[in-house]
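Colleagues,

For the teaching module next term, I've prepared a clean inverse folding example: a structure given as tokens, and then the sequence designed for it. I'd like students to try predicting residues themselves before seeing the answer, so please don't circulate the second half yet.
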């Protein structure tokens, strides 16, 4: 269905379905929609601001004193995280700080909008 507002020259399209556009770069965008009846509508400009790339820094690590200890620590700082993120470790744990770690090699995956950093 197409609804035209002739009073100010703006054309509005009303629809109960919506699509989502994801992972757009920063910039100025507008949306133009054409329905099956040929009605066309264009949005106002939409600004997607530049966001610094998310990064991480190892803040603190502490090894075990003896081979059989489980007192190791890894602490990570996450920078420029706009929105939700998750830090998953190869030992099954989550979060920015791991403690009570036995000796071993630990790798993490910083997941943000379906990408690992």
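(Answer key — instructors only)
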């Amino acid at each position: 269905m197409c609804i035209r507002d002739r009073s100010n020259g703006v054309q509005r399209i009303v629809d109960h379905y919506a699509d989502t556009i994801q992972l757009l770069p920063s910039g100025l965008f507008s949306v133009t929609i054409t329905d099956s009846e040929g009605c066309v509508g264009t949005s106002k400009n939409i600004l997607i601001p530049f966001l610094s790339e998310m990064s991480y820094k190892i803040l603190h690590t502490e090894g075990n004193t003896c081979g059989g200890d489980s007192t190791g620590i890894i602490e990570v700082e996450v920078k420029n995280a706009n929105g939700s993120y998750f830090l998953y470790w190869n030992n099954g744990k989550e979060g920015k700080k791991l403690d009570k770690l036995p000796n071993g090699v630990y790798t993490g995956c910083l997941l943000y909008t379906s990408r690992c950093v």
